[in-house]
Design a protein that fits this description.
Blueprint lengths: L1 H24 L1 H11 L11 H32 L6 H31 L11 H29 L2
Helix pairs in contact: 1-2, 1-3, 3-4, 4-5
Amino acid sequence: MLGLLNVFVMLAAIGVVVVLALSMIIPEFGATVLEALNENRVQAGAITVTGHLTLLGAAISTGLTWWIINRLRRILLSVNQGDAFEPANVGRLQAVGFSLLGVQAAALLLATVAPLSIGESSIDYDLSLGSWLGILVVFILAEVFRQGSAMRDEQMTTV
């Protein structure tokens, strides 16, 4: 299931990066994309820095989401092979934690610039305690996996 989800998120990430690149080359294209996101009219060629930052935030969010799903897939593969506490999983969990921090930073960026890019002035960012606690849990799990990996290595060297 994660493999299929990974493919769709990867396609979305590639699509957003392509839209960002095209909006840098053809400003009218970027304005058209922002117009499609909002009922208000954005003048052709009027994509601004906030519009580019909105697309950049979307690219960062989708890219990091793909990275997180990919790391989780690799962890599940090692668990299915009976080696959950392999040292690589520690790095994978830490990468998930840092990626989740990046997603939160991108969400803040998007909450700040997206409304401005479509002609609204309100900033709508809700600080989610659950998200930040989830990130903390991921880092704690990485430490648990590090300890488990050390114990596994010690057990394998014990005769």
